[in-house]
Amino acid sequence: MEGERVTRLLLLAGKQSMKKADFLAGRLETDWRIEACDPAADRAAFERLAPEAEAIVGGYIARPWPATPRLKLYQIPFTGHDFLEPEVLPAGCRVCNTYEHETSIAEYILLAMLEWEIGLSKTAARFRERSWDGKGPAEGPVHGEVRGKTVGIVGYGHIGREVAIRARAFGMNVIGIGRREQPTPDLLDWYGTTMEIDRLMAEADYVVVACPLNEATRGLLDADRLGAMKPTGVVINVGRGAIIDEDAIYDALKNGRIGGAVIDVWWRYPGRDEPNPRPSRHPLHELDNVIMTPHNSGWTQEQIDRRWVFVASNLDRIARGEPPENVVMTI
């Protein structure tokens, strides 16, 4: 209320969260005192601010943590939360993640399939270099099409649904598997649990990996499962690198046992000790049947804005005493 001292402290923890202080200040409808720090660079600031915070927005923060008795909300401004260490948070704290990446990633996946079939970038580069190359309009390179192809979604959820909507519009067949038993969604030709993954691997022209990483999915696509794919089949991984066995996929790609892969999520990432590692211990970058991107399949400005609008709305819910959305864990 006007004239009343604001006691709720919002801590933006980490380099990415710190950048959004002004954005949140302009979006929040409730009163918060916004502080920001990077725990990796200024541990003293984190240890001073965290005990007073009612909400923290951030990702992974290394131990040790100070006691945070007032903390009601740990808001992750992205989707993954496999890094979370619940024991550092106080009882009653709710952990929420943020989606809003589904449409961006679905567009990336459709682009990947279209590029694989049509080869637009390679054709354009060749035409620039060679012009007509002695061939007329109906004699140029023949390319494929996605119409009639089958896309199999491993982990049919938020992303999978958006992929299915777009794939259907292109005349594709869509199949999917997930953890829960449920009737086949209208967008799918068939749906099964993970018990039917081998069937999906065998039927799909494109296998889209969109499930979360956990103990059940780590190494889910191993040598046997990759071996069940069509020899022309393509894996598209937008989930997590470790869902696919690193040795097995390199072997399958190098020896032509599958058609190719489009990989956006990896086994190795930059760190303090190695700021620019290769994303795999194998030389995938030397293979011509791999499209590689730096974990940016969903990274559009529109998606970033949608996520932080959601973060602001969840902070408002907490301030008003309402339950937050996207709760992944209550401590």
Looking at this protein, list some descriptive labels:
seven-stranded parallel beta sheet; Phosphoglycerate dehydrogenase; single chain; Rossmann fold; NAD binding; 2 domains; NAD(P)-bd_dom_sf; D-isomer_2-hydroxyacid_DH; hydroxypyruvate reductase [NAD(P)H] activity
Summarize the structure.
The protein is α/β, with parallel strands linked by helices. 30% of the residues lie in helices and 16% in strands.
Would you kindly provide a written description of the structure presented here, covering whatever features stand out?
Strand 10, helix 9 and strand 11 (260-263) form a beta-alpha-beta unit. This protein is α/β, with parallel strands linked by helices and 331 residues long. Helices cover 30% and strands 16% of the residues. Helix 4 (102-118) packs across helix 6. Strands 8-7-6-9-10-11-12 form a seven-stranded parallel beta sheet, with helices on both faces. A six-stranded mixed beta sheet has the order 2-1-3-4-5-13, sandwiched between helices. It starts with 8 loop residues before the first strand and ends with a strand. The chain has ten helices and 13 strands. The chain folds into two domains: 9-100 and 301-330, 3-Layer(aba) Sandwich (Rossmann fold); 102-292, Rossmann fold.
